[in-house]
Design goal:
CATH topology of the largest domain: Rossmann fold
Strand order of the largest sheet: 3-2-1-4-5-6
Order of helices and strands: EHHHHEHEHEHEEH
Number of helices: 8
Largest sheet: 6 strands, parallel
CATH superfamily of the largest domain: HAD superfamily/HAD-like
Helix content: 25-40%
Radius of gyration: 16 Å
CATH architecture of the largest domain: 3-Layer(aba) Sandwich
Shape: globular
Strand content: 5-15%
Number of domains: 2
Length: 214
């Protein structure tokens, strides 16, 4: 019986990937390095330390990760203002879960500053969820299961009682390793890259009802 729903954020509730990619490119440009959007793709869903750090490694760039991440977030919070929107079905699905009496949490590899900025901007503030977990709260990021185990614990549920909603292969692996069921969205990757999910659909407007009443 599903008793809780654990939402990844980027690519599930909002399409923030283009914005963080743009912010990171702008940050690297300030350092005198020109990078491409495709450079970031292998690191989607792994948290900003790896997202930025992985690209820096590719270009042989030595960085102070906390300093460049802070600058990236400064740029990011500016460019999302008035532009970042919820993905189709996101708000209705969150409300449907609440109406069914399910506990809900956000579990994102992003830092708290980005999590809060995103949720406020799309009209799903942290106060709408019984719990949130951000990347600063766990030592091992996705595809390790830590973030979903922690989120389930905050809801006082077992992972097996939770449905995870993900859009990235690393997150899917994290969910399954934690022992959760997983609904995968093809907002960021093709269905062929999300094999192993219990359900796959294009976004939360097309989520199968059985995924939350299983």
């Amino acid at each position: 019986m599903i008793k809780g729903v654990l939402f990844d954020m980027d690519g599930v509730l909002s399409d923030s990937e283009p914005f963080i990619c743009r912010a990171a490119i702008m940050m690297f440009s300030e350092l005198g390095v020109s990078v491409d959007p495709e450079d970031f793709r292998p690191f989607v869903g792994t948290g900003e330390n790896r997202y930025i750090g992985g690209v820096a490694e590719k270009y042989g760039l030595k960085i102070d990760i906390e300093k460049v991440k802070a600058r990236t977030y400064e740029i990011y919070t500016e460019i999302i203002r008035g532009s970042l929107k919820p993905l189709p079905g996101a708000i209705d699905f969150v409300r449907a879960c609440t109406a069914r009496g399910l506990k809900i949490a956000v579990a994102t590899s992003s830092d708290e500053v980005k999590m809060t900025a995103n949720l406020q901007e799309i009209g799903l503030p942290p106060s709408m969820f019984q719990a949130t977990v951000n990347g600063l709260e766990v030592e091992n990021k996705k595809p390790a299961p830590d973030i979903y185990i922690r989120a389930a614990g905050k809801l006082e549920l077992e992972p097996a009682e939770c449905l995870v909603i993900e859009d990235a292969e690393s997150g899917l692996r994290a969910a399954k390793s934690a022992g959760c069921r997983c609904l995968a969205l093809t907002t960021s990757f093709d269905a062929s890259q999300l094999e192993g999910a219990d359900w796959i659909c294009k976004n939360l407007s097309a989520a199968p009802e059985e995924s939350i009443i299983w």
